[in-house]
Amino acid sequence: MRRVTLTLLAAWGASAAAAEPSVDADTGLSSWQTETAGIQVRLTQISPDQARAFYLARGFSAAAVERYVAECVFMTVVRNIGDTPIRHRLADWRYVAAGQAPRAIRSKSGWARIWQQLSVSESARIAFAWAQIPATQTFAPGDWNQGMTTYNVPRDQPFDLRFVWRAGGKLHSGMLENVRCADE
After folding, report:
1. All structural domains of the chain with their residue ranges
2. Cα(71)–Cα(181) distance, integer angstroms
3. How far apart are CA 148 and CA 9, in angstroms?
4. pLDDT recorded at residue 20
5. What span, in angstroms and rounded, lies between the C-alpha atoms of 95 and 101?
6. Are 151 and 95 contacting, i.e. CB atoms less than 8 angstroms apart?
7. What is the per-residue pLDDT across 86-108, written as a single tens digit (0 to 9) for each?
8. Rounded to whole angstroms, how far apart are CA atoms 76 and 31?
9. Torsions phi, psi for 49 (to 5 deg)
10. Which of 11, 63, 69, 116 is the S-S candidate for 48 at Cβ 3.0 to 4.6 Å?
11. How far apart are the first and last CA of the chain?
12. What is the strand order of the sheet 30-36 is part of?
């Protein structure tokens, strides 16, 4: 595990592309996107009210929904824009808020434990699992997928997302900088 961590830390410094946020004129929600070494990654804010409505409509209790929206929720899109297959493992991605150590994104299994403690129904847990970005996925050229990810940071504090993927037998990384959570 230590070797993997050191390899990831070395890779993170290798490729940081500037990402300019854009704001949707209709919703006021922001998106951050970057393209580097054959991958495109985009985070789009999901407002707490959007997340509440989505999960209440899928059978979550108000208490379970509030636990989820206490974290910052984003729609995450990963797209292969290169000419070789790419593979990502969400477990390798890290987010970093000012003054904090890098943190892993909470996995589906991590959320599943929380949902079990909060007695969320099986049908609601299935809906949740389908709405999250896959934990690992291989993309052929032109393939893409999307799903939700969450970040446990204060709403008013920016963070950087360091994402990692493999292509052509090599480890690559990129970064979205100064990402901000949607306002309550």
Report:
1. 2-179
2. 9
3. 25
4. 65
5. 9
6. yes
7. 999 999 999 999 888 999 999 99
8. 10
9. -65, -35
10. 69
11. 38
12. 22-23, 30-36, 39-46, 72-80, 144-151
Indicate the residue type of 40. Q
Tokens 């504090």 map to which residue? 157
Instruction: Give me the residues paired with residue 120 across strands.
Output: none
How far, in Å, CA of 157 to CA of 181, rounded? 8
SS3 of the chain: CHHHHHHHHHHHCCCCCCCCCEECCCCCCEEEEEEECCEEEEEEEECHHHHHHHHHCCCCCHHHHHHHHCCEEEEEEEEECCCCCEEEEHHHCEEEECCCCCEECCCHHHHHHHHHHCCCCHHHHHHHHHHECCCEEEECCCCEEEEEEEECCCCCCCEEEEEEEEECCEEEEEEEEEECCCCC
Assess whether pLDDT exceeds 80 at residue 46. Answer: yes
The string of pLDDT tens digits covering residues 14-35 is: 444 445 689 988 988 999 999 9
- Predicted local distance difference test score (pLDDT) of residue 158: 95
Residue 67 phi, psi dihedral angles, 5° rounding: -65, -40
- Dihedral angle over CA of 131, 18, 105, 182, nearest 10: -60
**Which residues touch 109 (CB under 8 Å, ≥6 apart)?**
none
